[in-house]
Structure formats: C-alpha cells, structure tokens
Write a structure and sequence with these properties.
Pfam families: DUF218. The protein is of the alpha/beta class. It is 52% helix and 13% strand.
Length: 225
Amino acid sequence: MPLPYLVFRFSRRLVLAGALGALLAVLVMVSSSVWVREGSAGRVYDEASVPAAPVALVLGAEVYPDGQPSPFLAARLDIAKRLLDAGKVKAILVSGDHGRWEYDEPGAMQVYLVARGVPASRVVLDYAGFDTYDSCARARKIFGVGKAIVVTQSYHIDRAVTLCRHFGIDATGVGDDTVRIYTAPWRNSVIRERGAVVKAAYDMLSHRDPVYLGKHEVGVEQALS
C-alpha cells in the first residue's frame, strides 16, 4: 500500500479518535453538570429566605500569608455571621485545609469570625476539609451534621449542596455574588468549576473516603448545646 495512503488513513483515524474523545469529554461534563443542578434544585436561597438549620457549613478558600482570609473567603464568613445574627443557624462549622503547619484555613476563619463578634463557642473547626467532597463527608461522618446551610460562592454552591446531600445531610445553600467585582479571579474560578463538577461526580461514583476521617468529634454538639 502506498505510503501517502497509509499516512492519510492514520491521520484520519487520529482525527476520528480526537473527535470521539472530545465528544466523550463534553458528554461527561454535561452529565456531571446536570447531576449537580438536579441535586441542588430548589435548595439554593438568598440569605433572607433560606430556611433555618442548626449549622452553617462554611467551605474554605484561600488565606493569605499574613493570616487574612481572601475576599472570597471573607464573603462566605460574613454570610455565616449574618445567618447566626439572624437566628437562622446556631453554630458555624468552618471546614478547610490545614494540611501544612504554616497554612491554616479553619484557624484563620475562626479568628475572623471571633474578631467580628461571633462567640468562639459557636465556631467549630474542621482541619481536614481539603476539598468540597471531604468537607461534606466529614461534616456528616465526623461531626454528625444532619441539617445545614452550606455557604460558598454562587458558582460553587450547586456542587456543594449536591455533595452534602449525597452524604445524607439535609442541605440548603446560600451563594455569594459580591466578589464578582474581582473579575479575573471570578472568571478563573467559574472555569475551574467545570472540571471540579466532573471530579465531584467521579468521587461520588467511586465512593472514596476523605483524605482523613478519624474519630467522631463532638464540637458541633457542644456548640449547639
């Protein structure tokens, strides 16, 4: 068979394989997005209308080297404080990354809240919320949360609520939009969320355990008492 013909056939197969791969990727992304939207349908509210729950679950985000929460994280914490002040929740579970000694999201979140008048006894720290899946799993399996208002940005809230519901938490959500003013970080986060939705679907289907589980912790129970 002539070499040019073999090259043509091989190239055509490569193009076909690439097209099929791209189609599969789109189908996976679309199906994952549909799963997330359906899982959170009717469960995302604004602050004023969200039904009361015992606990606000605040998901972690970037903390600066000086210990200050990033604007994205500060906005989440501000919502949780207002929910507490309004009597919508009785305790705040802050869940984030403390995988390195020098980087402590939950600790920074607690300092921020207490500095703004939230009683320390109402703030519970989860140091192993390395991602949304882990935070939701640990909220249920380690801290015994059965009902919660999840607080994060609006681009993230559907996934967060859906994952918490997957673990048996009666979850609703409040999403923040105030940090849209940070145009580039917001846009980048929205783009990353597309991949995160696929990862969330994979994590759910694989039934993986969180990076760290450990024993039952009574912090939420004590805060509610």
